[in-house]
Amino acid sequence: MPKSTCHPTSVEIASSRVGSEKTSGTLVLLTLLVSILISGGCTTAGMGTGNTETQGTGSTTTPPPPVTPSAPNELPIVVGAGVGPSPVLNRPLASVTLCLPGTSNCQTINNVLLDSGSTGLRLFSSVLTLPVTLQQQPPSFTVYECVEFENFYAWGPIATADVKLSAEKASNVNIHLIGDTTYVPPSSCTSGLSAASSPQTMGFNGILGVNGQNDYFCSPSSLTPCPLPYSYCTSTDGPTPFCTPTPQPPALRVWNPVALFPVDNNGIVFDLPGIPPTGAANVQGSLYFGVGTEANNQLGSATQYQLPLIAQFAGQTFPGGIDSGTPDIGFLSDSLVGLPMCGAYYCPSDPTTFTVEMVGANDEGVTVDLAVADPTSALDQGLTADYALMGQGYNNSVVLGFPFFYGRKVFYNYGSQNASQGPAPYVAF
Fold first, then answer.
1. What pLDDT is recorded for position 360?
2. Which end of the chain is more exposed for a tag (fewer CB within 10 A), N or C?
3. Can you list the positions of beta strands (E) in 149-199?
4. Last residue of a domain, one of 204, 236, 260
5. What 3-state DSSP class applies to 379?
6. CB–CB of 153/207 below 8 Å?
7. How confident is the model at residue 239, as a pLDDT?
8. Is there a domain that residue 18 lies in?
């Protein structure tokens, strides 16, 4: 599913600036059909979940079980087919355990997408058997949320549970149960979009959004309600069920569970192995909680790129980002690039290279050469983690999706959305 459109930090464009500090050297990420040549470092900013059209038609190999964590803050990642009739390519999947608050009555849900471009745990209600309590407001309202992504929306009630990720736990977390059809969602969220209706149609059982500790610039400690797409729904106050959009107090909103951990809560680190140029059927890696808090999440020599990022191309400025939930490389729009399209992807007869300058808010910059090739035959192979694809029309932005994560550690430090309250969030590698 294309990138989330619900996070201002993903799309905000800072004042135009050219990186005043450039690093040297060349780093090459070569995948089956498309290569990304990178001089020096790169950028960040979660741009949301990626394209549901990135599915093959061939057979797929069942991924092996994830490795056993070697540390309490390590969550195993499997890049695999997910669920549904077709393999889903370049998707980092993990297991999430929900428990009734303060009890050992728990359920583990596999095949949950790890998305650095959205915030909060969103699970299809059809996979949940744990009797969680739905959030209620007097006199007879159930709290619902509608979250708009690029080409679909997620709608359903809010519930409360303890969330365990490996050995780390966040207590009394608000989670979003999606795929609900009890009430009609607001048209402001659904206009022109299809519903995320089931795991089979989406390819995963839910989304674990690990983007930042703040949701839409609204802090959990804020006393001001956040005017975002929550609704109070009821079927008892009239002849027909109805929902009323209502600002939700910060304490009752859906937050990133990682930011609610007692420790290791200031960020995340993706750690994925490299893959061969011919692709790989299965890839395993890890997500580490915290940045600079444990031996396995130290920055070392990684370069920091403060958010928001911008991309300079053809004399114009666009948003830029790095996003684990996007399975391809999203590059501007067909009107600017001028390449022929095959469905959702560029398909030039000969490989074509474009150069983009990616710049962080701290003026750290990097030149990225994007080589575009026809992915048609590779898609038909149905491999689960094998190549970078160039997708079109990302709201005129440049999004380096999950193929960028292979062969490196990518750090997301949550920082503070308010510069007066602390350092700015950044991505590093």
1. 94
2. C
3. 152-165, 168-178, 194-195
4. 260
5. helix
6. no
7. 60
8. yes
The pLDDT score that the predictor gives to residue 159 is: 97
Domain span at residue 317 reads 8-55+295-428
Is cis: bond before 308, omega within 30 of 0? yes
pLDDT tens, residue by residue, 340-370: 888 777 888 888 888 888 899 999 988 877 7
Assigned token pair, 41: 């470092």
Count Cβ atoms within 10 A of the Cβ of residue 12 and give its class: 0-12 exposed, 13-18 middle, 19 or more buried.
middle
- Are 110 and 236 in the same domain? yes
Torsion of CA 271, 277, 283, 289, to 10 degrees: 10
**The token pair that represents 15 in the structure block:** 């004042």
Q: Which residue matches tokens 């470092």? A: 41
3-state secondary structure of 313: strand
pLDDT < 50 positions in the chain: 1-48, 50-60, 216-223, 226-227, 382-388
- Residue 162 domain-assigned (yes or no): yes
Tell me the pLDDT tens digit for each residue of 362-402.
Answer: 999 888 777 777 777 666 554 443 444 555 555 678 888 88
| Whole-number Å distance between alpha carbons of 53 and 55 | 5
